[in-house]
Design brief:
Oligomer: single chain
Radius of gyration: 27 Å
Distance between the termini: 34 Å
Largest sheet: 7 strands, mixed
Bound molecules: inosine 5'-triphosphate, magnesium ion
Strand content: 15-25%
Structural class: alpha/beta
Strand order of the largest sheet: 12-11-13-14-15-16-17
Length: about 475
């Protein structure tokens, strides 16, 4: 259960078409919306500028502790989504993939039209996404730059609007389209006019409405839905422009009394800084012992830890590296890319001097086929049978890698270790893996004889986590450019 709000951003009132759908599909969720009407329209602007404006909006919403960001604007999605995803610690949803998916689902003859702003059409984002998913689709994109101003001036029903819509859509008439994507969240407000011009046989796809279905799925996927009764949900609306005009359009469209607050966001940091510290970290591990230790450390910082066991099965990343760091990087980068979230991986193991550092990176699979803790321990003891106790020095090593989905170059890598000895007789029931055999002379106990807290205070993983703790927040805030 997570009561933090979902944040929605758009260049203007268009994003309200997404909010409307969110109110219908997710009535218990708290919602914050910000429209950048002062700098509307985004469509004709340079993508770099759209990205900068989008970040300003995002930074404003991050101060409201949002748990998920919905980019309810096609132009901003096309210009900034990968950048936002790479730098934010919360899930970020854009409108282009859901809209594309719905178009492919609905079309019967494979002829899909897309109308959007100049920015969206120029980016080719819809055509690219649709073709990536289904190469045989024929996609025709058309810019409709006059539509946004019509909506923003509340001219949706006027004679001018009728004429503009008819004239704009003329080039699509003879193409035999059976599906048209409304690739701008403003356009559903013109839906009746667009449907009239296109005719009843053309299915209109509202990319925003499709997006909310995805939001709903992802809230469950990340286990951050607000599933408690919420009789007075938060509905906060902000605009950078004229709040009166916003209120008229929003109240009518949403059927609610809306009183938006006017805000200035231009003085927010314009660089790509993700100000928020993440509320959830995904640990790329299936080892419950490890995950428990990492979760305990993060719990103290108010950060929730999830593991791969909390997600539907993902392909396994092969641990083919020769060092702990290589393997930890493979796991962190691999799962960060699949989950599109920041991911922490631990690669750890036991290095025994008398065995030339074995089992090392093979610690988990030391006993070979069908390995498990008991089999690994049995092999270790057998391998050390001839080695006297005073020559059984061993070291546990943990390398932690924190990765963002934007690639390995900026991974944060830390390491921790603990020295001890391997004893012939196991002691203790706590911990996992080789713990019952790992004796720590300074405290006269094996790691399995310690409580979780005691182990964390001295262990390789505890030491690595402390190194991480002092650096990870700065790392998150670093400019990823
Ligand atoms: O790769 P993931 O899914 O994280 O889980 P894993 O168990 O395969 O983890 P590693 O590849 O890092 O292998 C680490 C192995 O080293 C051992 N090990 C690591 N840390 C340990 C600890 O704190 N106590 C006991 N054994 C440990 C144990 O056998 C682990 O399975
Ligand atoms: Mg492993």
């Amino acid at each position: 259960m997570n009561t933090q709000p979902i944040g929605f951003i758009d260049s203007g009132v268009g994003g309200l078409t997404v909010v409307k759908e969110a109110l219908r599909q997710l009535p218990g969720e708290n919602i914050i919306f910000l429209g950048d009407q002062a700098r509307l329209p985004y469509g004709p602007r340079d993508p770099k500028q759209v990205r900068a404006f989008t970040w300003q909006m995002v930074n404003f919403l991050l101060t409201k502790q949002i748990k998920m960001l919905v980019v309810a604007c096609n132009t901003a999605t096309a210009a900034a989504l990968p950048d936002l995803r790479a730098n934010l610690a919360i899930p970020v949803i854009g409108v282009i993939v859901p809209g594309s998916r719905a178009a492919i689902r609905e079309t019967k003859n494979g002829r899909i039209g897309v109308i959007g702003t100049e920015g969206t059409v120029k980016s080719g984002a819809y055509a690219k996404t649709i073709h990536q998913k289904s190469a045989q689709m024929q996609v025709t994109s058309l810019a409709a730059p006059k539509f946004v101003p019509l909506v923003e001036s509340n001219e949706m029903q006027s004679a001018v609007a009728k004429r503009v819509v008819a004239e704009t859509l003329l080039p699509l008439e003879a193409l035999g389209l059976d599906t048209l994507v409304l690739g701008c969240t403003h356009y559903p407000l013109l839906r009746p006019l667009i449907q009239q011009v296109m005719g009843p046989t053309v299915t209109l796809i509202d990319s925003g409405a499709e997006t909310v279905s995805e939001v709903s799925t992802l809230l469950d996927y990340f286990d951050i839905a607000n599933d408690q009764p919420n009789p007075t949900p938060q509905r906060d609306f902000y605009t950078t422009g004229n709040a009166d005009m916003f209120d008229v359009i929003a109240s009518e469209w949403l059927g609610l009394h809306i009183a938006a607050t006017r805000v200035t966001i231009t003085d927010q940091p314009t660089t790509h800084k993700a100000a928020a510290t993440p509320t959830t970290i995904v640990v790329a591990s299936k080892n419950p012992g490890k995950v428990k230790e990492i979760a305990a450390m993060f719990a103290k910082l108010g950060v929730q830890v999830k593991s791969l066991n909390d997600f539907p099965p993902l392909p396994t990343v092969a641990e083919s590296g020769r060092t702990f760091e290589e393997n930890a990087r493979l796991k962190a980068d691999g799962y960060a890319k699949m989950l599109e979230l920041p991911v922490l991986a631990d690669d750890s193991g036991l290095c025994v001097a008398a065995l030339d550092g074995a089992p090392g990176v093979f610690s988990a699979r030391y006993a070979g086929r069908g390995h498990n803790d008991a089999a690994n321990n049995a092999k270790l003891i057998a391998d050390l049978a001839e080695v006297p106790q005073d020559q059984r020095q061993a070291r546990f090593v943990s390398t932690l890698v924190l990765a963002r989905p934007n690639g390995p170059a900026r991974d944060l890598v830390v390491e921790g270790h603990i020295d001890g000895q391997i004893v012939g007789v196991p002691a203790g029931d706590n911990g996992f893996g080789y713990d019952p055999y790992f004796f720590v002379p300074s405290i006269g106990k094996t790691l399995a004889e310690l409580t979780a807290d005691e182990k964390n205070q001295i262990s390789h993983r505890g030491n690595a986590l402390r190194a991480l703790e002092s650096r990870w927040q700065t790392w998150f805030k670093e400019d990823a450019q």
